[in-house]
Amino acid sequence: MKDSLKSSSYDALVIGAGIAGGEAALNLANTGYKVLLVDKELSVGGKMIMLSKVFPTLDCAACITTPKVSEISRHPNITIFTGSEVSNIRKISDNEFVAKVTRKPRYVHVEDCTACQLCEKACPTSVRDQYQFGLIGRKAAFIPFSICSPKAAAIDIDNCTLCGACERVCPTHCIDFTMETETNELHVKTIVVATGFNLFDPNNIPRYGYGKYKNVITAMQMEREIAPTRPFHTILRPGDGKVPDKIAYVLCVGSRDATVGNPICSQICCMYSIKQAQLLMGALPMADVTIYYINIRSFGKGFEEFYQQAKGMGVNFVKGKIGRISEKENGNLILRYEDINKGKLQEAEHDMVILSTGVLPTKGIDGLFENETLTLDQFSFVGQSDMLASPAKTSIGGVFVAGAATGPMDIPDSILSAGAASSEAISYIIQHA
Amino acid sequence: MAKINPSFGKELNKYGAINSNACYNCGNCTAVCSLSTEEVSFPREMVRLSTLGLEDDIQSSLKPWECYYCGECSTHCPQEANPSELMMSLRRYLTAKYDWTGLSGLMYKSLPLSIAAFVLTLVGVLIFAFSVDFVLEKMVHIGHLFEMIAIGTVGLVILLPNVARMWWFTILKPGTKVSFKKYLSSMGDLFVHMFTQKRALGCDDNQLRWFEHFLMVIGYLSLLFTTVFLNWFSSEYLIVTIFGYVVSAIVFVVTFDFVLSRIKKKKEISKHSQPSDWFFVIWLFLMGLSAFMVRLFIDLDLLETNKWLYLVHLTVLVQWALIIVPFGKWTHFLYRSFAMYFAKLKA
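^ inputs. structure came back:
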């Protein structure tokens, strides 16, 4: 990794190291091209590496992601910059882009760190763990999560008290507070934008009480609770640690909702909720799971069967959008909705509520480009200049787009899209050699 | 067999419905509505009936009247289908259906026709004034007489048959069996709702809205009573004179605020105004103000030299009594309270 810093010329720049960016980088690298893979997070793997299992096969997400991640990490043609951001991209000619990459200091020399966690034990500062979506805490000196890559500690300098405790216990002396922000100028021939998506912040819908009622959590938090590397080693509600037995899913939180500025379907929430419901029925056999939906959209291969399977397992499906949630004194929640099939207003009590939050675009991608305009679509996802015939093409020749950067998309589609983007990129390099 | 009217949506748009076809039936509106209950769930059902054009079901429903327009459903509608304005337009539509003359519907749907009616009444007042040579005493006397005759005639010829039609559409036609005893025992609800509009207190929004409206209703009814039965303009009693000043001031001050909020459009309830809404609040304001001014000019001995003021007041009064009361928004005063009465009968 050390020598990678010296080199500033690559064949391809891939922005975002989630499943789409990783796949695109691997395809390019396996074809013999030198790739720089940049991600703003401390680990590659994006959102998929955080997941429990994937629909509709119920394969373990980590078991699919980690081999891919380690292949990316060890590939001789791939250089990874984590904790880094790309900016000021200029197109000089058809086969040359210049960009700025800013690497924020990790304060740990990754190549020397053995991930022994002694620094974590020594660190006196606790903060909420963003990689567990706030369910538990972490230290200011921390290893992002158990299957992260690179598996190395990092110092959260915003919360660090600079007490030096971690430095003193580190057996390899890899902690270095003198590290500074590095800026590299890059020269590449092609760019793949794989910046993925953001999840809707349910604080923007106050009537659901997220952040106020402790037993209202997001689906991503539940995802962590049922993942193999889960924080509690069981499923419980955060309010009082009780194992829930009447669980509700609220679908379309922040999607198909013009009032929050996102009128489109997120395409994954129905399926991930059905998946979680099935996993919950396995983990908590006595629990009732109810999914409140507007429409169930099980449109992909094997999806409808997966939905029917959930019904067969006893997951309760109720047609009706939840209007309001209120909390009882014992932490249980009252959900108010209209049962559309009965045409009647109903109230139901649940002891835990999961908000299936929608997919939002990653903002500001167009701002990375200086002398060319990256066109966005009407929902601020990266626009596809030839959506039907060449879905990976953007408004800038030589810049391709992969995965959920183009719009809400599930994992198989993201991987397909990454394949298309990398093929287009390879073909572009050859044509403009 | 249910009869479907495919063009009902277009018809309803003429009554002020906006984008109601965008509804995807999530039921969020019903769930956020604080007046909706398990037994009486709305507004989604009404949106659905409107989209399908099931006119018979709409005409037999009391639900449009059970909504008091807090606007929460529109604020939170994920499709921006504007359910609260749909409920409002259904009230206008039902008002038109209940009206045996059919004039309500014509005026709700056509602004030129409404304006023509207003102009016609103005011409009528002027002809009347000419015919009595603008003699103030005569004008005031006949104006007072007109008030009494208008109340009686409009009540007997228009309003009473229309309430009977509402009864027919909502109770008799759907075949609801109600015992005579129940008609009597539920009667209390009719008057309680008529004079307090207490159901509006159930709305989640600012209860100041209810208070303002309540004050206005009391002010209006008192003004009516003072001018018609106590003959305010000719009264010699100080107490009657002062009372008249107070209630007419209440009417124009409160309605001024109503007009202002319809101009500002900050609250959901005042965002969408149809001509009928404007006529209602503005004429109520003008009536309160002109009555106040007429009495003031009488007390200051200025009316004889300013006959125009009385003519303005008379014109406003005639337009109010002959257009807005029988065929305009005024009728919601009756239909809302009778709806609560009928709902009690149905329960």
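Chain A has three domains: 3-104+181-196+362-431, 118-169, 200-359. The two ends of chain A are 27 Å apart (CA to CA).
thumbs up if we can close this ticket
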